[in-house]
């Protein structure tokens, strides 16, 4: 299996945001720590699996679509050769090539079938074949979702083991932990995409913070209405 950090980061951010949003909402509704853990872990595994499965299906569908288009281009090159040569000529004419240089480029590209097909795929259809395997992408997403998504639940597990029943104290530690996780995941994302790590960390922190705040307000508001 090949590890894909982009899918891992994608899953990590989603896992941290959704799990903490549930924790914040349940704490806002003043429910017991056991309810927090039940709902938190139920979401963690169910949503993580759902997200990984969706990623698998999306990646598989895209790969199949790209392969279908490639077979179509191969058929057109084999059966509509002159038309496809004209298309290559037009593509590179629009790029500024002309006269003898244009014809040289067309001749070189069309002399090698794979290069010809690759060029048509990229220049005409805007498709680039993805070497990632759908299963690798889905596993990377699932691991990221669960590994980072469990962080908001850890303080509540520790407090239950120690026999403490205070949601507020556990929630404080949960908040600190998950905000740190948001920032760290954002920094890793920034490093991968070669952008500002601090800026990426702050953006991820803001997104997660807003999601958590909304969930907490909704949970607190519902508890106020029904009590």
What percentage of the residues does DSSP assign to strands (E)? under 5%
Spans with pLDDT under 50 lasting ≥5 residues? Answer: none
Largest sheet: none
The counted number of beta strands is 0
Count of DSSP helices? 9
Average pLDDT confidence is: 82
Distance from first to last alpha carbon: 52 Å
Query: Percent of residues in helical segments?
Result: over 70%
- Which structural class should the secondary elements be placed in? mainly alpha
What is the overall silhouette? Answer: elongated
Instruction: Please compute the radius of gyration using only Cα atoms.
Output: 25 Å
From N to C, what is the helix and strand string?
A: HHHHHHHHH
Features:
elongated; mainly alpha; 227 residues
Describe this structure in words.
The protein is an all-alpha fold. Helices cover 84% and strands 0% of the residues. It has nine helices and no strands. Helix 1 runs antiparallel to helix 8 and helix 3 crosses helix 4. The longest helix is centred in the first third of the chain and has 47 residues. The chain is elongated. It starts with a helix and ends with a helix. The mean pLDDT is 82.
């Amino acid at each position: 299996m090949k590890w894909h950090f982009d899918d891992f980061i994608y899953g990590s951010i989603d896992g941290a945001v959704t799990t903490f949003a549930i924790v914040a909402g349940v704490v806002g509704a003043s429910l017991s720590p056991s309810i927090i853990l039940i709902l938190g872990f139920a979401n963690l595994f169910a949503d993580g699996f759902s997200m990984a499965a969706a990623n698998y299906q999306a990646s598989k569908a895209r790969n199949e679509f790209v392969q279908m288009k490639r077979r179509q281009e191969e058929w057109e090159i084999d059966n509509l050769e002159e038309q496809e040569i004209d298309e290559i000529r037009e593509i590179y004419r629009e790029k500024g090539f002309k006269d003898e240089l244009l014809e040289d480029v067309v001749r070189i590209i069309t002399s090698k079938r794979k290069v010809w097909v690759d060029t048509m795929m990229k220049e005409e259809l805007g498709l680039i074949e993805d070497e990632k395997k759908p299963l690798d992408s889905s596993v990377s997403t699932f691991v990221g979702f669960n590994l980072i998504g469990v962080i908001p639940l850890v303080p509540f597990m520790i407090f239950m083991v120690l026999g403490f029943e205070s949601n507020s104290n556990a929630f404080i530690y949960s908040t600190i932990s998950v905000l740190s996780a948001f920032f760290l995941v954002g920094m890793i994302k920034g490093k991968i995409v070669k952008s500002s790590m601090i800026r990426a960390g702050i953006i991820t922190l803001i997104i997660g913070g807003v999601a958590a705040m909304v969930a907490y307000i909704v949970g607190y508001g519902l508890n106020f209405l029904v009590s």
